[in-house]
Design a protein that fits this description.
The chain is α+β, with helices and mostly antiparallel strands and 321 residues long. It has one domain: paralog of FGE (formylglycine-generating enzyme) (Alpha-Beta Complex). Helices cover 23% and strands 14% of the residues. Strands 10-5-2-1-11 form a 5-stranded antiparallel sheet. Strands 8-7-6-9 form a 4-stranded mixed sheet.
Length: 321
């Protein structure tokens, strides 16, 4: 009788999804990460601009958010409130196509395993990976931007509700995140990496994640696909002394921070609070293909075209999948 009642009311599906979430190690299904697909696209809630490199950017409003995790490893503790001024951040990871334009125009050194042909053909919509931290920084400056601070990256990925992943609390699915392929998982740029605009359709969407891979601010692939360099030096205990307003990390250090987890990493590395550090030339020295980046610019910038996106806006860049 109980099963019949659950089935008739449609509650059984929510129940099953919740149990699956617990079994997989995530939180039960909760309304806070179930987006209403009947409403306007998530991008319509935020002001957007186009960077000098042609990349769409979303404005992250000024205000507070929760950073870190008390149930995480020491480098994520303590959980603390941070205030950030408004800024724009690339909606997508910097693509191979855009990075190739940068290389061609500046004669900057290519990453060791860079494939010029793939960058303009079959893998042009994949994230650019394999560059040193300094090269990512130079690209952002070339585009009139900068690398995000660690705090800016986490707020853009997490929003203001303390979620565990960009899409909510539930563990990742293969159709919204590229992850867990391991150290032997590399095949090619177009096979191993996912398109930066992918992750908004499939099984996970049918199970309640209406916005798929997107963060609360509409950013794609803030978990998995490519890890992302940020501006800060790494210090395991920095959260114990970081300022409340606009933290920029330690003044010096030996390693730079990268965030988000990659195609290689297990689910725990995809959490929005997960922190990792590497020597700035690590990808070059190790022929590593897991780290890419995205750029930010300050909230007020007169050199870019600012538009207010609405549900009726015909933005083809947002419609690609």
């Amino acid at each position: 009788m109980l099963w019949k009642t659950l089935k008739e009311t449609g509650v059984w599906l929510t129940y099953i999804v919740g149990v699956m979430g617990v079994v997989l190690g995530g939180h039960p299904a909760e309304a806070e990460w179930k987006y209403d697909s009947s409403g306007p696209p998530i991008e319509s809630h935020f002001e957007m601009t186009t960077g000098k490199d042609g990349a769409p950017m979303i404005k992250i409003p000024e205000g507070e958010f929760l950073m870190g995790a008390n149930d995480g490893p020491r480098n994520e503790r303590p959980e603390h409130t941070v205030y950030l001024d408004a800024y724009y951040i690339d909606q997508f990871e910097v693509t191979m196509e855009r990075y190739q334009v940068f290389l061609d125009e500046t004669y900057h050194d290519s990453p060791p395993l860079w494939n010029d042909g793939a960058a303009v053909e079959e893998a042009k919509d994949r994230p650019a990976v394999g560059m040193a931290w300094a090269s990512a920084k130079v690209y952002c400056e070339w585009a009139g931007k900068r690398l995000p601070t660690e705090a800016e990256w986490e707020k853009a990925a997490r929003g203001t509700d303390g979620r565990r992943y960009p899409w909510g609390h539930m563990q990742p699915f293969v159709d919204i995140a590229r992850y867990n392929l391991g150290t032997t998982g590399w095949v090619s740029y177009d096979t191993t990496l996912a398109s930066v605009t992918s992750g908004t359709s499939g099984m996970s969407i049918r199970h309640g994640l209406k916005q798929g891979t997107k963060s609360p601010f509409g950013l794609y692939h803030m978990a998995g696909n490519a890890s992302e360099w940020v501006a800060d030096w790494y210090n395991r205990s920095y959260y114990e002394e970081s300022p409340v307003k606009n933290p920029t990390g330690p003044a010096e250090g030996e390693r730079k921070i990268y965030r988000g987890g990659s195609w290689e990493d297990p689910p725990k590395r995809l959490r929005v609070t997960a922190r990792a550090g590497a020597e700035s030339d690590f990808p070059i020295e190790a022929n590593d293909l897991t780290i890419g980046f995205r750029c930010v610019q300050d909230g007020k910038n007169e050199s870019s075209t600012v538009t207010q996106v609405s549900p009726e806006t015909d933005n083809e860049e947002l419609k690609k999948d």
